[in-house]
Amino acid sequence: xxxxxxxxxxxxxxxxxxxxxxxxxxxxxxxxxxxxxxxxxxxxxxxxxxxxxxxxxxxxxxxxxxxxxxxxxxxxxxxxxxxxxxxxxxxxxxxxxxxxxxxxxxxxxxxxxxxxxxxxxxxxxxxxxxxxxxxxxxxxxxxxxxxxxxxxxxxxxxxxxxxxxxxxxxxxxxxxxxxxxxxxxxxxxxxxxxxxxxxxxxxxxxxxxxxxxxxxxxxxxxxxxxxxxxxxxxxxxxxxxxxxxxxxxxxxxxxxxxxxxxxxxxxxxxxxxxxxxxxxxxxxxxxxxxxxxxxxxxxxxxxxxxxxxxxxxxxxxxxxxxxxxxxxxxxxxxxxxxxxxxxxxxxxxxxxxxxxxxxxxxxxxxxxxxxxxxxxxxxxxxxxxxxxxxxxxxxxxxxxxxxxxxxxxxxxxxxxxxxxxxxxxxxxxxxxxxxxxxxxxxxxxxxxxxxxxxxxxxxxxxxxxxxxxxxxxxxxxxxxxx
Length: 482
Known about the structure:
alpha+beta, 4-stranded mixed sheet, 24% strand, single chain
């Protein structure tokens, strides 16, 4: 979806009051009413059908929790105002960026959704960092930064995600093997805590809040601005597409390439074949500007069945899937995704088991498998397996044509596969369609769970933020007593 400018939003009947008696938002303040006037906003709080319908769906088209209002903030102050109002009057809040959740994670049933797309200013780009609002798409940051010859060291495969939404989860890509996740390359945040405080935090200032928010799934504070690392960017990418007949051939080659770091970008795919099976692809990229890389050295020891080599402009490579994802989104297909981190020692076994029953139809749109180094993932909220190396298995499913029963079956398959991964010491990368209870989340966080509880009590004591994740037991958000 194209980035939307604030002026395109500010059209329609705005809300001016809230009636706590029946949790209704009002476009006027009747005389002798119990309704409470909403504090002044720079943007708008709206309740029109189009806004509520959009906020009640996402890229997964599986969960539909309808809010009662949508905030289109005109400033960071609007976010502060709404969060404080929510605390006073027992309202739930979620933030929706580009809507690329898959299972209602950014929805707020009967609450308020903050549409961060109106907070989309790129404030500063320097040789080593950028300061951006949470609603900025990575695509826009990359475009502007490349004018100055710099870019983020890591990019997700799809650049149409918002900065704030990505940093709530982690942000993984083919360069994570060298630089960690996007959260590992975040230098500073400006956030609104769940109790309505506007705080700037970093590793040196309010470090506990900083670490709680990065990868914190929106549970402790709302990211409104971020300072992210930039590095010198190349002009070109030489991309090697290496095919293998067996998945173990692929993972062996990936381990070799990971060990010596020969590729700047390293991923892998399970690609459907005409005979209802899969072939296995290593995708490696090397960045350069003038001197092309040595093909023979890069291919040494990888023993591919097939080789394709292509040179493309660096930006075109980073943005290679944008149009495809936008086309899929327009089809509104159910997307029961599963992303799992698997310990290296059991990856071949688990994937081999999966391939005994996985069909191209059930794999859906894209299936990824690639390794990274655990030591580079440093943010404590991002749960990854123990061991030097782990693999990401991503089944980015799309059910076509749409079929609710088929989608539900695939979610059940996700639940079963996740249980298998968990039992083997793995974890989820939490952008999934999974049936998870608060007990499951306690298991996910493991020994860190007491810290997660402490941070929730400290930064969002009334539990107003991001209910769609389902991490905590429901709490009463009754209005405060004067």
